[in-house]
Amino acid sequence: MAPAADSTGANSAEGMHLLVVGCGSVGRRHLGNLARLGARLSAVDARADRLAEASDLLAGLQGVPGLQKFSRLDLALEADDLDGVLICTPPHLHIGMAQRVAERGLNQLLEKPLAQNIEGVDHLMATLKSRGVWAMVGYSMRFHPGVLEVKKVVESGVLGRVLGVRAEVGQYLPDWHPDEDYRRWYMSHESQGGGALLDLSHEIDYLRWLLGEVAEVSAAVTHVSDLDLDTDDLSELILRFENGVIGNVHVDLVQRQYRRHCSIVGTNGTALWDYSTGTVELRMADSALDEIRNYEDARNDQFVDQLSHYLACLRGEATALVDVADAAKTLAVVLAAKRSSAERRWVKLSRR
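-> structure tokens emitted (352 positions)
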């Protein structure tokens, strides 16, 4: 279970001035968590109503200083006491904003996905290197206790040699933010980096983390429902990993109840992770070794843990778990899957 979000101890953001760019749902979540951790906060959003919602959120937290608000990133970056930046905008804006933050010489947390395409990624990495700063990419499922438990199982070797894996996630898009018209949200628009495959690329990221790099992919990236969007709402991928493991990833925006799970098949047994039940189940060749591991989880825990890691990186106590080069490999799988679907063939991934 994640540590409590407070402003004491190793998690503390006390004395830090942090800028959150984008006050949509994830931006407001980060603002609330950072406020509880003691940070002094500024925010940027072109929409005045979003800034007002963010300000009201912090005003409802006892003992939290008021939010400094900006309508433009360049104005916010003029502050000479910023310790870090969190970019929480739609994906098509990520690289451009991350580039400006890097040029300002600031370390940043860039929400996933890294971008909607590969354009500008190499330039961003070069700028980060030349300015001596870093960018962490927000694949928060690496901080989820279920994924962490699966990682322990795989690394322990109890499953034997891993042969195959299947990961699935899905939820009906209009239910994500019931108070918001999904048709106006970036998720419904290819040009803004929306769609099931790109936004739900957590599954690709954590499978790479668990099993290694993907060598080639075959995919169907499709729009199958009556939802009013111009991007994929259901995608099915077959992955061939460099170590020979065969994987299947299913992502969709159409399931009427939220579903997320993963199964990893080895020569000695299978590990089954179910997000909904909070369990990792081991089904072994020797049934005497069967086991159900329960873990505690609240929806916000992984985000608090991710922020705690980001703060540790800002203090120089840790290195970003997912950097730009790492996130670019997940993006490469997404782009290869889209190409595979369009060309109806296997697509090999080149090493960056």
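The domain at 141-296+330-348 is CATH 3.30.360.10 (Dihydrodipicolinate Reductase; domain 2).
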